[in-house]
Amino acid sequence: MKNPSVVTVEGGPREASPSPRSARGVSLSLLLLLAVGCASYARPAVREWSGFLHDYSRLRLGGPGELPFVYRNPNARWTSYDKVLIEPIALWRSGTRSLSPIADDDLRHLVAHFERAVRRRLGAGFQLVDAPQPGTLRLRLAITDARASNGVVDVLTPRPVDEPTNEKTGPLGRELSAFIEAAVIEGEVRDAMTGELLAQGIDRRASGAPPPLPTWEALDRGLAFWADGTFTGLETRAHGG
């Protein structure tokens, strides 16, 4: 993988925004959200999100057992898909210094652990492929700690050294644990051949969600739980269930 690259959000620099961590109180540990259920959320303005998704206008508030914000294409022919192309998962942050108390090494390992959990879960029900072909879903996912109202977004991706053979173990650092409590997961599924949008979702902290995850091992278990809860419905629809 390449080192983190900086990209400019369309429209150029805008006014400064409060820290997403203090403003949103959202969380990866919400991954245990299916056991907690969804709270009632007001729909945020588009500028409150990172810009990772190309269009937020289709999103609706999720119901019981759904992500807090979700869209499903009513015309999607789910049973025609048996393969998944997973784009490299990244972390979007507002500039290279927005998470400066956390080592980039830890952030890259977080993303690598997340991608491993996603690949394991989807690989159990679909053929994982590296190029578009008929019957293929294209999945884009990111952990986001940025706002579209910020002028510059830094995109951080894992390197080969961050892969599972060199995985982290032991306690999570305090700052990393706080970030996990404050991050958002954004994702979308498209037809890999046509680019047609099939589904979108945004995960954020629900009231009553569990406390921060204390170790890398606990994080792995939580990510596996999140992936199972999030993608079981996708697998069921594709298999005609």
Describe the model.
The N and C termini lie far apart (37 Å). The protein has 241 residues and is α/β, with parallel strands linked by helices. Strands 1, 2, 3, 4, 5, 6, 7, 8, 9 and 10 form a ten-stranded mixed β-sheet that branches. The chain contains five helices and ten strands. Residues 1-41 have low confidence and may be disordered. It has helices spanning 20-24, 33-36, 104-123, 174-182, 216-238; strands at 5-8, 60-61, 69-72, 83-86, 90-93, 127-128, 136-145, 152-156, 184-191, 197-203. The chain is 25% helix and 21% strand.
Shape: globular
- For the secondary structure, the number of strands is 10
Mean pLDDT: 78
Number of helices: 5
- The fraction of residues in strands falls at 15-25%
Order of helices and strands: EHHEEEEHEEEHEEH
Determine the structural class based on helices, strands and strand pairing.
Answer: alpha/beta
Compute the separation of the termini in Å: 37 Å
Radius of gyration: 17 Å
The major beta sheet can be summarized as: 10 strands, mixed
Name the helicity range. 25-40%
